[in-house]
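Dear colleagues,

As part of the handover before I leave the project, I'm documenting each prediction I ran so the next person doesn't have to rerun anything. This entry is a single chain, and its sequence is reproduced below.
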Amino acid sequence: MANISGIEPFVVQIPEAMLRDLHERLARTRWPGHSPDAGRAYGTNLAYLKDLVAYWREAYDWRAQERLLR
């Protein structure tokens, strides 16, 4: 139900199935070969990217973020 001001509450609520799918896709990441001399010319640092993906798979707490956004 909309209020007089036209502002409606928004609730962030990611379905569990979407989070499972994301986790599974991150687990199936196919990493490129590593060229030690490439530097940033070919994109981000591979070690950094692997750490970032591991964080999203193993440590990021979606539910805690949803609670913060309420």
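The mean pLDDT is 87. The CA atoms of residues 8 and 36 lie 52 Å apart.

All the best with the project,
I.
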